[in-house]
Amino acid sequence: MDIIPYNVNFVSKGQGLVNFGNTCYFNSILQCLLSCPSIFETLEAIKDKPYVKNNELFNELYSLSRLALDDVSIANKCAFIWRSVLNTAYHRKDRIHLDLGQQDAHEGLMMFLDVIDTIPEVRRLFEHRYLTQIWCDGCKKMIVSKRETNLVFEVQPDLKNEQHEQFKDVDQFYNQTMSMNDFLQKQNSYVDGFICSDCKDNNKKFRITTLTMIPEILPIVLKKYGEKQMTPFPAHLLFTHKGSDKKLLYMLVAQSEHSGSTQGGHYWAVCLRRDGWKLLNDSSVSDGAPGPTPNTYIVFYHFKGLQE
Ligand SMILES: [Zn+2]
């Protein structure tokens, strides 16, 4: 198994970051990423590879990591990271949606993860895989089975599946609020407007997605619809380890928090660092406490190790 466990040697102390004008959403995301040591352990491991020499994003991230781990101020350094993310994104603006007016932490994270494909060893730390199977109610069998790779999890605020009563027999969590752990592992939803190639039935289809591969870092976006909703999430998550009795243990390491509307508002972060849980709000650093709040928007878990 080559999954990298949480290594405190690559966790820096909590430090503030300067807000360069509406960059609180990016500061919030960068603070969460700084709480994910496998990124910085990976950068250290690949620093002599020829291809990273001229990679601006690699150089900025590696330099940020070295300074932070040596307790040197990175307050202004965040601007260089953001600039190199934007530079890379700008040069491929034909490929991705680049809307700088949005200023949303989820968008900021997605932009970061999009440009991190120039450092595949880091991107891999976020890649998880689901197996999607579609069940046809006409011929009563699985008609589609495919694998999908994603980087960010998104969960419904009430941790319930979209469900239809006719499928309750194939849905073990029918009409139940699930734990975050169960929700991530298996989701069911209803599929519309899809004609089965076997029975030509265009009636109800049912989709089951099962988590089949899990990486080092799990960013989970807690979807919001209008009013602030509080989605429960635990301090730890456990997943089955294929071919072993042990479980893969994940720990909560960071939360991106948001107040205000979807059009604006303010972002900050609550992060586990070498000196404990910190509330990191742009330049301000104080002691923080993890756990669900009505403001929690994105939570980050990191692989900790195997549990008996
Ligand atoms: Zn069918």
Tell me the quaternary state: single chain
- How big a fraction of the residues is strand? 25-35%
Biggest sheet record: 8 strands, mixed
Secondary-structure element string: HHHHHHEEEHEEEEEEEEE
Q: What structural category characterises the helix and strand content?
A: alpha+beta
- Overall shape: it is globular
User: Mind telling me the C-alpha Rg?
Assistant: 21 Å
Give a count of the beta strands, DSSP E runs of length 2 or more.
12
Bound molecules: zinc ion
pLDDT averaged over residues? 88
Low-confidence runs of at least 5 consecutive residues: none
N- and C-termini, Cα separation: 16 Å
Q: Number of helix segments?
A: 7
What is the percent of helical residues?
10-25%
Question: Explain this structure to me?
Answer:
- The chain is of the alpha+beta class and 308 residues long.
- The protein contains 7 helices and 12 strands.
- The strands form 2 sheets. Strands 3, 6, 7, 8, 9, 10, 11 and 12 form an 8-stranded mixed beta sheet that branches. The protein has a 4-stranded antiparallel beta sheet with strand order 2-1-5-4.
- A hairpin with a 2-residue loop joins strand 9 and strand 10.
- Helix 1 crosses helix 5 and helix 4 packs across helix 5.
- The radius of gyration is 21 Å and the shape is globular.
- The two termini are 16 Å apart.
- The mean pLDDT is 88.
- It binds zinc ion (ZN).
- The site of zinc ion (ZN) has 8 residues, from loops.
- Zinc ion binds next to loops.
